[in-house]
Amino acid sequence: LNPRSDSWQAVVYKGFIAVVIISDLVSFVISTEPNLSDYHRRVFHMWEGVTSTIFLVEYITRLVVVMESQKYYEQGPFWGRVSYALTWSALIDFLATFPFFAELATGWDLPTLTYLRSFRLLRIFKTSGFSEATRAVYRVIYYNRQILYVALLICVGLILLTAVLMYYLRPQNPEHSQDFQSLGATMYLSTLMLTGQGGPEGDMPWYTKGVVLL
């Protein structure tokens, strides 16, 4: 329950859970590949079952031992556990674990929320060095908040300006009708252009090309 514990049992436990979470995330990413064979899909499904069982046991164990914390002990055995179950970390564990067992029980095709377990890594790695690095990043953002705020306004203004110009100077041929059909569509294009991710393709008139060059 204490993420800052330095006892060897806590270090081993956090390392084990971190390895399980990382391997589970890698498995989740690979399992979305469309060209996987049925055999590999079954393997990844079995691995999801193994990791979900590990987290189910851990979740139940946490509910059992949470009364060791003075904060929850003062609330009584029932409301103390309810209070812990409604915390952010416990809710993430619940949402990332129970859909697998709900699928087994009902046969429903529920969305996989395995990726939510990545947030657990923040709690697991909450050591003194990690906390100090996090505070340093916070201080940088806090003391430069006005600069960042102005930069954000400039970026939004540039996106809106480019989007409006592209909307009113859009190509008239049907090939580009979807890309320039509204300000929302041109804002998407302008965001891609201003971040260097791409832009409109195909044959365009000279005035649209001029906006793209901006």
Element layout with pairings:
Layout: H1 8-31, H2 38-65, H3 70-73, H4 77-85, H5 88-106, H6 118-124, H7 128-143, H8 145-168, H9 183-194, H10 206-213
What is the distance, rounded to the nearest whole angstrom, between the alpha carbons of the first and last residues? Answer: 54 Å
Number of strands: 0
Instruction: Compute the average pLDDT.
Output: 80
Reported for the largest beta sheet, the result is: none
- The ordered H/E elements are HHHHHHHHHH
Strand content: under 5%
Query: What overall geometry do the principal axes of the alpha carbons give?
Result: extended
Descriptive notes:
- With 214 residues, the chain is mainly α.
- The model has no long low-confidence stretch (mean pLDDT 80).
- The protein has helices spanning 8-31, 38-65, 70-73, 77-85, 88-106, 118-124, 128-143, 145-168, 183-194, 206-213.
- It starts with 7 loop residues before the first helix and ends with a helix.
- The protein has 10 helices and no strands.
- Helix 1 packs antiparallel against helix 2 and helix 2 (38-65) packs across helix 5 (88-106).
